[in-house]
Amino acid sequence: xxxxxxxxxxxxxxxxxxxxxxxxxxxxxxxxxxxxxxxxxxxxxxxxxxxxxxxxxxxxxxxxxxxxxxxxxxxxxxxxxxxxxxxxxxxxxxxxxxxxxxxxxxxxxxxxxxxxxxxxxxxxxxxxxxxxxxxxxxxxxxxxxxxxxxxxxxxxxxxxxxxxxxxxxxxxxxxxxxxxxxxxxxxxxxxxxxxxxxxxxxxxxxxxxxxxxxxxxxxxxxxxxxxxxxxxxxxxxxxxxxxxxxxxxxxxxxxxxxxxxxxxxxxxxxxxxxxxxxxxxxxxxxxxxxxxxxxxxxxxxxxxxxxxxxxxxxxxxxxxxxxxxxxxxxxxxxxxxxxxxxxxxxxxxxxxxxxxxxxxxxxxxxxxxxxxxxxxxxxxxxxxxxxxxxxxxxxxxxxxxxxxxxxxxxxxxxxxxxxxxxxxxxxxxxxxxxxxxxxxxxxxxxxxxxxxxxxxxxxxxxxxxxxxxxxxxxxxxxxxxxxxxxxxxxxxxxxx
Length: 496
What we know:
By secondary structure, the chain is α/β, with parallel strands linked by helices. The chain is built from 16 helices and 20 strands. The mean pLDDT is 94.
């Protein structure tokens, strides 16, 4: 009997996870990546002697029982990573906060920073951590949401414990409601701090973030945050090697131009006119790619909800890639930090920056005496539609972002060797994010959990993974969606 042929479109972390696991299970797998780099938004690029992390930089899920640890153990992959006790610094005008990995130490630091709300903050985090522990217990079985089949319903029900009944009210609430419950709505700087954590992971803030997803996000760094030498592209490279070891074909520079259904199989055509046939297609591209990626007749058979989502923009990102002379950097420059524009309180349009710098000893990213820095901020893509808007915004954001860094680090200009801007068209051109969309849909009540997009489509054997579908963005989220494709195709489960 011939092996099932599976084509994975997109070599991001989600697609590579699905491809590597399916190849190990004995399937015939071909992974097609449009760019010249693996990893998608967690990829890399080289300029002269410097290597830059494209997007995702902070490693998570590598602790015992974490999703990456389980998948890598399943595939025989080992990743070098250093666990962080101080996850990141957060600078808000004259205030500097530290996100500590230790829960008790973290709560004490927040109480010290906001003494007038000390008891309220302790009660807030007690509920956050309790709720997150229950959700993690449920998610350990990696149930599929939204439920589409009887088997998925059965697996969800068998994952439930009696304590999970207490989570039910949270489906209808936001993190804002939790802050209100604990009388913290007047503690604006604390909310500003929480908003900074959620905008990076949930693509939204406390006001609109679904409560159950939000408490998980506020707790996730305590489970384990890591510095990965070189960057998170190492995940992608190891997944590719694991896929190849098990017979998969992994091909860079193959942009898929059309997927069509012919009889009982799919045809996948690339930009060179090569046509490959498959029993299953796993699309790891954003759902916004589907209208151009799929034959019109095939696209028309997708669900109304999926077609609607495929026309919606999500956030974009403006990114600066900077090489630095270490001699001009302060000794306490953190590996990871968030900088808030001191004159603003929003978390978009350049007012909230996430910075990730290479470690002093990381020779994969920079030669001795130098370091590379990735700086990103959320942007509203609707303001970048015309060429004149685009050119003005690009220039303005470069200066706005640099000015915020200068505010906290006045000597930064002496350290800067080169600056490479990554505006929306760069995200469209290199990792092939349509229109520059990044990060997936905001995890609001209307876009998360049972109302998120499933990896399963209305088309037989046409699957989705990546940051557009449940459970959402980040390397943890996309890996889970890749696993869901593997599980649905093979019926096999990930080892505990």
